[in-house]
Amino acid sequence: MKEIRIRTTLPLLMNDLQQNLLPNGFDNLSEIQQKATLLAIKSQVTGVADFHPNIKLFVERMFGVNFHGNEDTFENISGSFNEVVAKMSVEERRIPLRIFGAVCGMDGRLRRRVRAESNRLSMLCSEYDKHSLKKWRDYFMHGTSIPS
Q1: Which of 10, 22, 83, 129 is the most exposed place for a label (fewest CB within 10 A)?
Q2: CA proximity to 104, closest of 59, 84, 128, 134
Q3: Greatest CA separation found in the chain?
Q4: How many CA atoms lie within 13 A of 91 on its CB side?
Q5: Vertex 118: Cα angle to 3 and 35 (nearest 5)
Q6: pLDDT digits over 45-79, tens only?
């Protein structure tokens, strides 16, 4: 039931979400922020072993084109999200951390592997709230305020 509700509400929230997470667009992020953002999405997708339609819609909006033209972008990117984020400054990693929480929340399935990654991120980044995944899921399900 949760997944059905999230699937139906996300398209309605997409413009606000995109404006809040990527106000200047993906192309205006620094190279390391772009890499961290892609790794955040890839980390969530591999964590649940499925590419949720909401995440596909978000990625299409992020790139501004059909996702199938950018599949190789995800396949060719290598590295660990945690390692890349650890090398970034607090200000630089704000966007990738928020996108990680958002894509986990828009999927709705907070699997053990994803929760464990969230816990590791909270140890690496003092500003990251390990409970943000649930806050993002609540945003998509119940319309609570967008987590900071």
Answers
A1: 83
A2: 134
A3: 39
A4: 2
A5: 95
A6: 766 666 778 888 888 888 776 545 555 666 778 88
